[in-house]
Amino acid sequence: MGLTRLERLEISGFKSFAKKVVFDFSSPIVAIVGPNGSGKSNVVEAVKWVLGEQSLKELRSKNSSDLIFSGSASERAFSSAKVSLIFENLSPESGLDFEKIAFSRQIWKDGLSEYFINDSSVRLKDIIEFLAKIGLSGKKYLIINQGETDRILTLSAIERREAIEDALGLKIYHLKLKEASQKIEKTEENISRTQILRQEIKPHLNFLEKQVKKFEKAAKLREEIKNLYGVYLAKEDGCLKTKLKEISRKKEPIERELNELKIKSESLSGEFSNKILDKENEKTKLLENRLDDLRQQRLTVERSLGKLEGFIELEKNKEARSEEELVAKEEVGIFLGELETFISSILEESAIDRVYELANETMSVIHSFSERMRSANSSIAGAKIDELIAKKEKLGEVSAKIVSEENKIKAELENAKSEERRESGELRNLEKEIFEIKNAEANLKDEMNLIKLEEEKLKFEEEDYIREKESAKSFLSGEIIKSDNFIDENERRQLRKDLERLKIKIEDGAGYDESVLKEYEDVSSRDKFLEKELADLEQARGALNKVMDELKEKLNLDFKSGLSKINNELENLFSLMFEGGKARLYLTDEGGIDILISLPRKKIKSLEMLSGGERSLVSIALIFALIETNPPPFLILDETDAALDEANSLRYAKILDSLSKRTQLVTITHNRQTMNQAGSLYGVTMDKSGYSRILSLKFESSSEFIKEYAQ
User: Fold this and answer.
1) Between the N and C ends of the chain, which has fewer C-beta atoms within 10 Å?
2) How far apart (Å, rounded) are the C-alpha atoms in residues 682 and 684?
3) Distance CA 519, CA 515 (A)
4) How confident is the model at residue 9 (pLDDT cuts 50, 70, 90)?
C-alpha cells in the first residue's frame, strides 16, 4: 500500500492559522471539532493544498494571497504560509532511505509556490510522482465532505461507473488504454505516412530501375568504346607529335632569314635616317624664314609709301586752294597717329640693323612733326608737303635696301636647294633598297603566318585531344598507351566517327551515370527501409491492439471482481445502517452503474423516493463500501455525519471503528458518537485574537469534553 501511517500535520500562516499548530495523528481515528467559523475547514484545505491542489476555487480563495494569514488586531500579517504532512516511511516503494518523510508546500505574497521533500526543494511533478508511489495520487475519495456523500447518488449511471472505477484504482487502466489508443492512432498515422512515402517514391524507383537496365545494356558499348579510345588516343598522340615536328622544321629557316633581313634593314634604316638629318639642316629653313620676313617688310613699306603719296597729293591740292583752306589740326594729328602706328609695326617685323636705324629716324621725324603740330594752332601747307616728301624718300631707301637683301637671300636659297637635290638621289636609292628588304620580310612573314595558322590548328587539335582524354577517363581504367605512329587524316576521321557513333549510342541508352546508380541504390534502400518500417508498424499496431484487448479484459475482470466486493461490503453496511434491507450495484444496458435498494418495511421504486436521512445513509454506506474495498492510506471525513440522527450516528460510529482497522481516519465532526470513537480530539477555536487555535485531548480525558461539547 505504500506509506500506511500519517504521523502529523503542521500548519503555519495558512489562512486563519497565524501561530504554528501541529496535529498529531497517532490514533487510528482523530476527530477535529469546533464551532462554525473557527477554522476547521481550513485544516482540510491545508491537506488538499500540501498534496498539490491547484484550484483556488477548491480552496475557497480568489487569489493565492488569500491563502496567507492576513493579520488581526493582535497579530501582524504573514508574508508566507507553509503546510507540512509527515509520514512514517514504512514501505520500500517510496525510494527514500528515511524513517520519516515530510511533504511541504510554501507560498509567498507574490504568488511564488515552493515544494519540499524533507526540506529539499522539488518540483510539483516530483511531488505528484512520489505521491503516486505511496498511493496518494488520484484518490478521489481521500477527502470526503458532506456534499460528496450525496453527490454519488445524483451522478448519472456512466458517471457513477467512472467514480467506482476510480475508487477501485482502475483509472490506471483507462489511462493505459488512452495511451495505447493514442499510440495506435500515432502508429496508424505513421503507417499512412509510410505508405504515402512508398507511393511517392515508387514511380521514381521504377524510372531508376529502367535507367539501370539501360546502363546494363550499355555495358558492351562501354567496353567497345574503351578499346576504341585506347587505339585512337595512342595514335592521335603520335600524329600530333609528328605534326609538331613538321611545323618546327618549316619555321627554323624562315625565322633565321627573317632575323638576317631584320639586321640589314636596321642598318640601312640607320644610314637613311642620318642622311635625312643631314639633308634637313637649319640653313634652308633659316633662309626661307628670312625671305618670308623680308617680303612682309617690303609689303609693309610699300603700303606706307602709298599712303604718303596720297597725303602729298592731298596737300598739293590744298595748297592750290586759298591759304585759308589749311588742313585742320585734328586731321593732321589723326594722320600722324596712324603713321606712327604703321611705322612701329615695321620696327617690330624687321630684323635688319640698318632698316631698324632708318625706321627709328623716321619715327623721330614724325614725333617732332607731331609735337610741332600740337604746339601750333596752324602750319604752312608747303612745309608739310616737303616734310612728307622727305619721309617718302627715306621710306623709298628702306624699301630698296629690303629688295636688295631679298635678292641676296634668294640666291643663297637656290644654291642650298641644288645641294639638297643632289643628296635626294642617294636617299632614293637607300629607300628602294630598304623597300625591297621590307617586301622580302613581308613575304617571309606571310609564310610564317601560314605556319602559325597550322600551329593554331594544331593547338586546337591538342585541346580536343586533352578533352577526349578527359572524356575517356570514365571509360579507361589505366594509363593511356602512347605511340609515335603517324596516322593519316582519313584514318583519324574514321576513328573519330566511330567514337562519336558509340557515344551517341551510349547517350541513347542513358549513358553511364554513377550518380543515377547511386540514387537508385539510395532510393531502393529507402524503399526497403520503408517496407520494413511498415511491417514493424503493422506489427506494433497488432501488438498495441492486443495490449488494448488485454487491458479491456483486465479492466472488465477487475471491475467485475471489484463490483462484487463492493456489493458484499455494501450489503453488510446497508444492513447495518438500516437494520435490514438490501442494496446492490448493477450494470445497465448502456454500461453504466445503477443502484437497486430494498428498505425493510418500506417499498421504494427509485432513489428519489428516499428521505433526506435515508439518502445520507445510502450514500455513506456506498462510499464506505468503496473505501472498504480499496482503502487509501488515510481518509479525511469532513462532517459526513452531519445529517444523521442519534440512532444512525451510533451505526455510523460502528462503521468508523471497523474502517479504522484498515486506514487512518481524520474526521471533522459535531457528532458525539463520532467523537466517542476518536482516540484523539482536537478542538479548533477562534477568540478575540482573530486567528485559529487548537486544543488537543487524548482518549483518557476526552469523555468529559465530549459530554460537555455535545450539550
Assistant:
1) C
2) 6
3) 6
4) very high
DSSP assignment letter at 542: H
Return d(Cα 112, Cα 708) in angstroms, integer.
Answer: 44
Q: Residue 548 is placed in which grid cell?
A: 488494448
- 105: region left, alpha or beta (phi > 0 left; psi from -120 to 50 alpha): beta
Which residues, 6+ apart, have CB-to-CB distance to 247 below 8 Å? Answer: 451, 454, 455, 458
Q: Which of 120-124, 242-246, 475-479, 508-512 has the lowest mean pLDDT?
A: 508-512
Q: Report the distance separating Cα 6 and Cα 101, nearest Å.
A: 10
Q: Is residue 35 a contact partner of residue 123, using CB atoms and an 8 Å limit?
A: no
Measured CA distances, 683 to 23, 614, 688 (Å): 10, 30, 16
Residue 636 pairs in a beta bridge with 143, 666
Q: What angle do CA 286, 290, 295 make, to 5 degrees?
A: 150
Q: Are 578 and 570 in contact (CB under 8 A)?
A: no
Tally DSSP H helices, then E strands, for the chain: 16, 14
pLDDT, mean of residues 132-154: 71
Helix (H, G, I), strand (E, B) or coil at 684: strand
- From the list 668, 656, 663, 657, the residue with the least C-alpha distance to 632 is 663
What single DSSP character describes residue 90? -
Q: Are the CB atoms for 378 and 326 separated by under 8 Å?
A: yes
Residue the block writes with cell 508566507? 80
Q: How far is residue 403's CA from residue 289's CA, in Å, rounded to a whole number?
A: 15
Cell (9 digits) for 88: 512514517
Binning pLDDT at 50, 70 and 90, where does residue 340 land?
low
* Tally of CB atoms within 10 A around 65: 15
**Which residue is listed with cell 617718302?**
392
How many residues would you count in the chain? 711
Which grid cell is 273?
A: 635616317
Compute CA 343 distance to the chain's CA centroid, rounded to the nearest angstrom. Answer: 93
Q: Buried (b) or exposed (e) across 216-253, using 16+ Cβ within 10 A?
A: eebeebbeebeebbbebbbbbbebbeebeeebeeebee
Residues 6+ apart with CB under 8 A from 403: 298
- Residue with the bigger pLDDT between 609 and 50: it is 50
Give the burial string for 594-627 (b: 16+ CB within 10 Å, else e): bbebebeeeeeeeeeebeeebbbbbbbbbbbbbb
Q: Is 273 helix (H, G, I), strand (E, B) or coil?
A: helix
Chain segment 641-690, per-residue pLDDT in tens? 887 888 888 888 888 888 888 889 999 998 888 898 898 999 999 877 78
Nearest to 22 by CA among 114, 99, 102: 102
pLDDT surpasses 60 at 68:
yes
Is residue 13 within 8 A of residue 81, CB to CB? The reply is: yes
Q: What is the mean pLDDT of the chain?
A: 78
pLDDT digits (tens, 9 = 90+) for 232-285: 777 777 777 788 888 888 878 888 887 887 777 777 766 666 666 555 455 677
- pLDDT tens digit sequence for 510-558: 555 677 778 888 888 888 888 898 899 899 999 989 999 998 899 889 9
- Contacts of 267-273 with C-beta under 8 Å, sequence gap 24+, read 268/430, 268/433, 268/434, 268/437, 269/434, 271/430, 272/427, 272/430, 272/431, 272/434
Domains of the chain, each with CATH number or no CATH:
1-139+670-711 (3.40.50.300), 277-445 (1.20.120)
In order of 130, 131, 195, 711, the CA distances from 93 in angstroms are 9, 11, 45, 47
Give the SS3 label for residue 610. coil
pLDDT of residue 522: 87
